[in-house]
Amino acid sequence: MRQSPYRREKKSLNAEMNVVPYIDVMLVLLVIFMVTAPLLITGVDVDLPKEQTNTMSQSQLPIIVSLTASGELFISYENNIDMPISEPELINTLSNLQTQNSNTGKPPVQVIINADQNNQYGAIMTLMASLQQAGIEKVGLLTGAPLPTPSL
């Protein structure tokens, strides 16, 4: 029997992935990051505003870690109020409290940083890194009341 002239020839399937569109997308993303990266590096002096903010959940009293302008650390939790503490002791204490809470089924430890406004940014970031080492996930920053707005 003769084959029909209208019959299609069956070709084998091409199982290779077409990566050209992915390369195009990656090149566009690379250009975007190259353009925006210099903007992220430069800093601008800002005077942060004082505003009313939401408070942390009150199901458990937070631990307050105070950092003075001279770099001294103090911790307040449960019946211990403003105890002087070193950074390694702080990490151990917070790790122990976090472990106790997880073993008893309590929510994770909440920490509030009470830092003097004259502290260097690096000192506060070092403190936050120490809190992260201790396994603390919820950290807040304690602020003063907002300044009243002048009436005109």
UniProtKB/TrEMBL annotation:
Transmembrane segment boundaries: 21-41
Function: Part of the Tol-Pal system, which plays a role in outer membrane invagination during cell division and is important for maintaining outer membrane integrity.
Membrane topology: Single-pass membrane protein
Subunit structure: The Tol-Pal system is composed of five core proteins: the inner membrane proteins TolA, TolQ and TolR, the periplasmic protein TolB and the outer membrane protein Pal. They form a network linking the inner and outer membranes and the peptidoglycan layer.
The organism's taxonomic lineage, starting at the top: Bacteria, Pseudomonadati, Pseudomonadota, Gammaproteobacteria, Moraxellales
Name assigned to this protein: Tol-Pal system protein TolR
Gene of this entry: tolR
Keyword Cell membrane: yes
GO BP terms: cell division; protein transport
Source organism: Psychrobacter halodurans
The keyword Metal-binding is assigned to this record: no
Entry GO terms, CC: plasma membrane
Keyword field: Cell cycle, Cell division, Cell inner membrane, Cell membrane, Membrane, Transmembrane, Transmembrane helix
Protein family per UniProt: Belongs to the ExbD/TolR family.
